[in-house]
Amino acid sequence: DGTGWFRPQQRYKTGSTPFSVAAADFNNDDLPDVIVSNPGENNIMVLLGTTNKNFDRKTTLTTGQGSRPRSLVVADLNNDGQMDIGSANSGTDCISIFFGSGSMTFTNQSIYSTGADSSPYSIAAGDFDRNNQSDMVVANYKSDTIGIFLGYNNGSFTNQTTYSTGSSSSPYFVTVGLFNNDSILDIVVANYGNNKLGVFVGHGDGTFEDMIPLPMEYGSHPFSVVTGDFNNDKKVDFAVGNNGTDSLTILLRTC
Question: How far apart are CA 45 and CA 39, in angstroms?
Fold first, then answer.
């Protein structure tokens, strides 16, 4: 409410087993809209933000039978100035892309494989090769890899290039940021299976160094990570949610 407090919650029906949520302006009215992934119904629901601070007019995007979309990313993926949606589909080993029109309608999905028995759990976007075109990265839970999809300016993407996250690592969540003071995007992944964070330092040409492991507490099972400057020293730090120990870990960068 502008004072550090929140109004009572408002609940909106989504679909079965809502798992991930993101916000963006999909119809160019300067109001945030919301998308929700529904793994139980194999779809993504789009809710239109209104001037009375409610959400209305649901649009449903189908990701395919058995797809189980878990994670969502919002970005302009084809350089047309409109917000698009990417989805990591854990049940069908692929990502889906829905291109937005700017009027709350979307194209049919474009599908890119993440490899047999990969089960992508998380997806993020960034410009990894510095060509002013959005690229994507996924965390492949079952194949112990991250996968990089480099974007072309026509809205299509390369086939996946993978980097290992380590044996039995079960990468659960991935995000991007600037982690080593060089203005080139890097990647951090939360590895649920081996209790580690993994940092992939970017070269700026769409390729990355091998993973730098950051060990966490035994049995912590990290499953989410966000970045920010938590101690105001102009360095990017990590906050990690730990499913196994019911805890939050803050990692402050020192150099």
Answer: 11
Phi and psi, residue 227, nearest 5°:
-120, 155
pLDDT tens, residue by residue, 50-109: 988 888 878 999 999 999 999 999 999 999 999 999 999 999 999 999 999 999 899 999
Specify whether the CB–CB gap between 249 and 196 falls below 8 A: no
CATH of region 118-254, choose from 2.130.10.10, 3.40.50.720, 3.40.50.2300, 1.25.40.10 = 2.130.10.10
How many angstroms separate the first and last alpha carbons of the chain? 37
Judged on CB neighbours under 10 Å (0-12, 13-18, 19+), 157 is buried
Length of the chain: 255
β strands within the chain, DSSP E? 20-24, 33-38, 43-49, 55-62, 69-75, 84-89, 94-98, 110-113, 120-126, 135-140, 145-149, 161-164, 171-177, 186-191, 196-200, 212-215, 222-228, 237-242, 247-251
